[in-house]
Amino acid sequence: MATNWLKVSEPSPHVFHVELSRAPVNAFSSEYWREYGKLFETLAEAHASGTDIRAVVLSSAFPKIFTAGLDLTSAAGLGAATSDTSQDSARASLAMRKVIHEFQQAIGAPERCPFPVIVAVHGPVIGLGVDLISACDIRYAASNASFSIKEVDIGLAPDIGTLAHLPKITGNLSLVRELTYTGRSFSAAEAETLGLVSKVVEGGRDAVVAAALELGKVIAAKSPVAVAGAKHLITHARDHSVAENLAYTAAWNAAALMTMDISENMRAMGAKERPKFTALGVPSKL
């Protein structure tokens, strides 16, 4: 599944590791973000076909940086396209909307995957990097990580996911506005206070990736039916009222509770051994 700038491995059973590896600083060109979105779509398709993916860890392959954000050449191209007065304005706007929507879909692909995506960041996480990690399920940061919602310094409002996700991730809307309006850098400790990351790991890349992979192993040992259902229902709860989510969960679990994973968990507990679950894309035999 590896591509030009994305490494893919399976360091432990059912836990896949995706590494961003576009030298020198993981700057996202148009080709790169399309490749990124396609990879997660491919992982989801493989999962549906029976590949037993239960968790994915996303990190940078480079020791000093997670990502520098949007490639400046791509940013310059965007500016040139929007300043072209030779085109009909309405048609140009509709074409730009199409590109932005495609960009949003690519960076948001991890949220649509039926398995959890854990992102482990270290070093600078700039601009588009915040969009990218906001679409992941769980965010761990090395203590040397720093973050910046940098788009204001280019001359645009963030439009790929940060402003959609951060108000749902944190209750501190004042700080979200401050960080967005100023583009200032903030530390891993402040990101944890904000709620952007759930854990700060002392050290750099190796330490935070190890912690994320260990978390992936814990999740991979759970029922795939339960984890996939929980991910889907948490996202639904974020976007709907309590009453709507309860009604939806009742309908969802009316089917999901028929899983053989429940009896397998009971059997394993009685036998004092680890349960053995079938891949989610493969029907269990009744």
What is the topology?
Blueprint: E1 6-12, E2 15-20, E3 27-28, H1 30-48, E4 55-60, E5 69-70, H2 72-82, H3 89-107, H4 109-112, E6 117-121, E7 124-126, H5 128-134, E8 138-142, E9 146-148, H6 162-169, H7 173-182, E10 186-187, H8 188-194, E11 199-201, H9 205-220, H10 224-239, H11 242-256, H12 261-271
Parallel strand pairs: 2-4, 3-5, 4-6, 6-8, 7-9, 8-11
Antiparallel strand pairs: 1-2, 9-10
What features would you describe in this structure?
This protein has 286 residues and is α/β, with parallel strands linked by helices. The chain has two domains: 6-220, 2-enoyl-CoA Hydratase, Chain A, domain 1, CATH 3.90.226; 224-271, Lyase 2-enoyl-coa Hydratase, Chain  A, domain 2 (Orthogonal Bundle). It is built from twelve helices and eleven strands. It has helices spanning 30-48, 72-82, 89-107, 109-112, 128-134, 162-169, 173-182, 188-194, 205-220, 224-239, 242-256, 261-271, and strands spanning 6-12, 15-20, 27-28, 55-60, 69-70, 117-121, 124-126, 138-142, 146-148, 186-187, 199-201. The strands form three sheets. It has a six-stranded mixed sheet with strand order 1-2-4-6-8-11, sandwiched between helices. α5 packs across α6 and α10 packs antiparallel against α11 (242-256). The longest helix is centred in the first third of the chain and has 19 residues, at 30-48. It is globular and about 70 Å long.
List keywords for this structure.
11 strands, Lyase 2-enoyl-coa Hydratase, Chain  A, domain 2, 286 residues, six-stranded mixed sheet, 12 helices, alpha/beta, fatty acid metabolism, lipid metabolism, globular, Enoyl-CoA hydratase/isomerase, Enoyl-CoA_hydra/iso, 2 domains, three-stranded mixed sheet, 2-enoyl-CoA Hydratase, Chain A, domain 1
